[in-house]
Design a protein that fits this description.
By secondary structure, the protein is an alpha/beta fold. The protein has 6 helices and 4 strands. Strands 2-3-1-4 form a 4-stranded parallel beta sheet. It is globular, with a radius of gyration of 15 Å.
């Protein structure tokens, strides 16, 4: 009997990793965070990857990791906030499991990211404006 995978999508800081970890434990599924897997494989954090390879390079890594992880069975995967920017990623997610969108009020996202220095997309300009645009 196959176990349908569960994929969590949503904006950065919405709680995908926290919810995913708890959900995985409650249903007995292995949990993966695509950003964490990318960092482990690169031996560097996402901010460094963005600096050196640009957003496109990061998105290429993200797509490869997503394709690999969604090939597993019985997993909960917390995706990066921008993973749905590529059509191929949306197709992978929709075709290989249940996709759940997590959402949060803008004020909460701003609060959660206020002291966060590891989110390259928030390093430029006003955080609130950037988060509102991405929402």
């Amino acid at each position: 009997m196959s176990r349908q995978n569960i994929y969590l999508i949503g904006l950065m800081a919405v709680g995908k990793s926290t919810v995913g970890r708890l959900l995985g434990q409650s249903v007995g599924y292995e949990f993966y965070d695509t950003d964490q897997v990318i960092e482990e494989r690169a031996g560097a954090d996402i901010a460094w990857i963005f600096d050196v390879e640009g957003e496109e390079g990061f998105r290429d890594r993200e797509q490869l990791v997503l394709d690999e992880l969604t090939g597993l069975e019985g997993v909960v995967i917390a995706t990066g906030g921008g993973i749905v920017l590529r059509e191929v990623n949306r197709q992978i997610l929709a075709g290989r499991g249940a996709v759940i969108l997590l959402d949060s009020p803008l004020d909460r996202l701003v609060e959660r990211t206020q002291k966060d220095k590891k989110r390259p997309l928030l390093d430029v300009g006003d955080r609130r404006e950037t988060l509102a645009r991405l929402q």
